[in-house]
């Protein structure tokens, strides 16, 4: 039998399963690119303002480490999109890898792929289908983003190079996802390995970019993120560099296919370590089990949030020099809604950190559904554990985890910005308060996952769709002058803009109450439906 037979059928099945998820994330990336460019075009009306902003950015090691270096100081396109170059490549790469794992290892873990393999489905069909769907998604993201950037007035060649930058990063990590899916027996572990590769790639890129004397620039070439960045959109448009990530993907895909032939369906090359026959006393409650399941992910996210907070706080001391024109200052203050350019920047960035913390809350709450579909929930509920105890344990960890993440980021930014500005004793409490006010909106989004799990478990991944919509409204609603009624749909739009802004307790109370109501409704819905 042909090893690829059935690939077309599996592609159609994957597209049907992701018929909402993929289009929504394509729209999110395209609008993010176009919105960022549109917002920046009027901020730097002349070459001198661009040069001043670019030099300020390049002179800040924190900014260079976080976003990358601006290669052409006169380029409007590069200045408009430099924040989305390396950071956007990471997000596209993460999406590509997760799509591959979702349609390979996740299907094996659930037992569905073994059933399909009993029919006329070749050995490589699932992997080939996953790669086609993932690669097609990131290529479409790149192409549509390029067309959108051309539409807002940026040069066609640079726009195509930028689209290729995102697409090439996605292709690289589609290959990484294909390989990690062969290594473990669990999709979460495979995604964890992918996250480690992404993190290492980002750090290598940061080390190479922030090299003061240029002697360490070669380190960027060890990173798939660095390869994509070296396409240098709007700063030379080096299209030939795309051959490097394409070759990288080809090698990883070939290795993945070789590994498929060496293992059984459902098995991984790295066997899971068997646990002890008897559970430790610390695992004798549903909450302890939930903590054990989530703690590794929380530790990794926590370290990343601490680092992000430190970087944001360090950048804050340089933001006044980066935002050079009056229109630029007006835009940052409009986004942050506060008095003072530094506070505006910190408020805006803390809002972005809140969005990232929400992603952890969604991921943690979705563990309820994955435990249920993997048939691990029903045996647990057959014991003395009640439904409320089981759901509550995971929800509590999700809520606690998001609080830890956002407060760790606030503490890091307070320490870093306080040290840079010379007022740490004043800045740390302000940044912790700015972080804390993000929690009601974050918990509301987590509550949406719980209520979907309770009443419509098959639609629970739709929480990611809602999250994408909230992100677009929150980040670009003011730029595109959306009606206030539309802006009010996003819970993040009701969060007080701190530090520096006016604080009102009413929206905090309302958001918390809605979050509690959604979570309680989810509990009630789960108690009335069948498990599975």
UniProtKB/TrEMBL annotation:
Keywords: Membrane, Transmembrane, Transmembrane helix. The chain crosses the membrane at residues 20-41, 81-101, 121-154, 160-183, 239-260, 298-316, 395-415, 435-456, 463-483, 503-526. This is ABC transporter permease. The lineage of its organism: Bacteria, Bacillati, Actinomycetota, Actinomycetes, Propionibacteriales.
